[in-house]
Amino acid sequence: MKPGWHSRRPWFAAGLAGLAILFAGCATEPPTVDPPTLGITPEDTYAAAPIDAPRPAPEDLRWWHRFDDPALAVWVERALAGHPDIAIAHERVRQARALLDTAKAQRSPLVTTQLRAALGSRGAGARGGDPRASVTLDWDSDLWGGLRQAERSAAAGVLRSAHLEQASRLAVAGLAARAFVEWREALADLSALADGLALQRDVLRVARIRVEAGLSPRLDVDRAQAEAATVEAEVARAGIRARQAYTALKVLAGERPTVAAGPSPAPNPPARQDMEDDAKAPRVPGLRGELPVNRPADLLRLRPDLRAAEEELVAAAADVGVARAAMLPRLALQGTIGLASGSGLFDIVTGSIAALLDATLFDAGERRAGIELAESRAREAAEIYRRTLLQALGQVESALFASYGTASEIEALGRGIDAAHASLEQARSLYAAGLSGLLDVLDARRTTLEQHRRLLRARGDAARQAIAVFEAMGLI
Fold this sequence. Notes:
Layout: H1 5-23, H2 70-82, H3 84-106, E1 110-116, E2 119-121, E3 127-129, E4 132-140, H4 146-212, H5 218-252, H6 273-280, H7 296-302, H8 304-325, E5 330-340, E6 348-358, H9 366-432, H10 438-473
Antiparallel strand pairs: 1-4, 2-3, 4-5, 5-6
């Protein structure tokens, strides 16, 4: 070893340490990847929405209160409070925050300590101790910003998880609202069929009177009985649908399904008088007021799945920076303070500090492949964002077309029901007077019942389409 090397070694280590501090802020910035917004501008509107459609208000973020059935809001709130998917999504947010804390810790110095005590003989059978203590420091200077970009990726992961939790809440709210509409529709259908069955039995009674009086053939009674049996079968089927819908509603609320007594099960506590009254006289819920419609540009900030895809894009871009930093040398500071015993306890103090420059000379292309992988994932994230935006735009347009189309259908069916009722009353009167046959009555009754059931389905579809619009707009 050359003379004077020991005298220059501390200055050499200090120089490397200073170099580490000097270049600690020289980070390799990750590539900037702008989300592909498909050229959407704030002035753009939906093709299916009227120009004068109202814009969503802050209270529309809890859109389930916009329906005229208070029980719907109660069930949605129960689902939001008890569905397992929301709890799972919340735990994933916690996990993402833990990963962010881990990434932050990687940028801080690592300080460890070690205590050592050994027993041994010091001659003449005497036993003594040899206590030692040391404190070590290890700090990665993050010369090229790889750790900082890893922290940025983890922070984007936290935001992504939070947006996915909101997406889960929106999905659960939509599922619960649709299940409630399905339940109410099944109960209303059951009620309509019960009324139709009562009417059919009345027709059967009139047919028997006419047959006994010799005014009609026995064939009329057989036909009336066959029609009554058909309606009874529909009643049984509607009862099954009502119970299945109620079971689905309970499961969505995170509650154990229970067997409800009777064909019109009422919700479990917390009970409400208006809920019980609605179960006795079931109706399909409808939207109060006009359907609010936002603009395509609003989706970029409202749709939680779209915002999650954007954070995924941010994380992927940061991972490219991490991969690029891995190609460059790593500069770290390492220091040690040692305490040892001499004539007294811990009276010998030693210390050292070193700068470690770690560079890879040959890895057979492993790190270069890591960069290509990260860049490919960033491009994939951009395409996923574009796909998510396209799907969101399509969902809103489709839901709006269906919603406005269903409104026209309900109006037409309402006119048809009035005509069907008039036809039925006239057919019954003519049959009772012996001026027409039973087939006219059965046909008119069948038409009236079918019109009622079509109207119920249309009203259910209208409620479901309104729910779909709120979901597609990302209101939560």
